Amino acid sequence: MSVAIITGSAGLVGSEAVKYFANRGLDVVGIDNDMRAEFFGEEASTRWVRNRLHAEVRRYSHNDVDIRDAQSIENIFARFGKDISLIVHTAAQPSHDWAATNPMKDFTVNANGTSVMLEAARRFSPEAVFVFMSTNKVYGERPNHLPLVEMRTRWEPSPSHPYAALGIPETMPIDGTLHSLFGASKIAADVLVQEYGRYFGMKTVCFRGGCLTGPNHSGTQAHGFLAYLMKCAATRAPYKIFGYKKKQVRDNIHSADLIRAFDEFYKSPRPGEVYNMGGGRQCNCSMLEAIAMSEEITATRLRATYVDENRRGDHIWWISDVSKFQGHYPNWKIKYDIPHILREIYELNVERWRSECSIVAKATSSVS
Asked: How far apart are CA 57 and CA 54, in angstroms?
């Protein structure tokens, strides 16, 4: 028996990993206590994904456990021991806005929770591959100091800058800049994962993601750019844009492309590695460009308002340079582009979104 432990198993990346590795023949043990609903409200709950996994994935078992609960995590690892060949750690508090409202909980979930997972792995399954979903926020505001040029629909680096062709590499420094409290807690976790690889020789890796996306994303205003944008366009809900003349740029990577990157590392691990991971130059968009595509797909006009002040710690331009990972794993390629991603999010969720809105409207009407 070969077992995969997946935290945040009902989230966007976790649920994609559950299905992928179960289809590869692994028994998947999920860990997820739906803290996303606590962070962002009931609309962000991942319960619907958990129910779908139970119904569709035969090799899946679920544990409603907090990753900070060291004893419960230890019990899970002790039960499977050396049968565990893969750990995919995606559970996190993912918003720099939310982190500022409760810094202690943000740090304990992101840093302490990761420490609990690493130590359980070291004690009970030290040969397992440990994949950690980190973030580009470890670089803080440093990307905002690039020499950016304003274009018609987006910001871009000066063509002469070394990052212009491929994006931002792993060599960008992380010191001497504002990070947000979320960025700080993820740096702590990121460095821990690297250290367990280098110090203890474990097969660990940090994937520093930009915008992660896909149809299983329970997007909200605070987190989940494309999913939330498409939901607002489809349901005529108001959408707020923060700063940068609506021209801020993000690369977006479909969760399926990301999981295939995990699999490449799983098959041939390189202990203590770090990779920037996103859509790169193949899959990116500005806010204005994403809005135009969402309006075309839904045949509606987005009810958008603009706030001139940007979110603190938010990037003006982020495109990941994925060439280091592609150099190590040349079989990996990005398959999804932005139009494909947006259309898939819409087609697989529109009926659920509209049903939810109808239920809320009826409940509001009956109360009034």
From this structure: 6
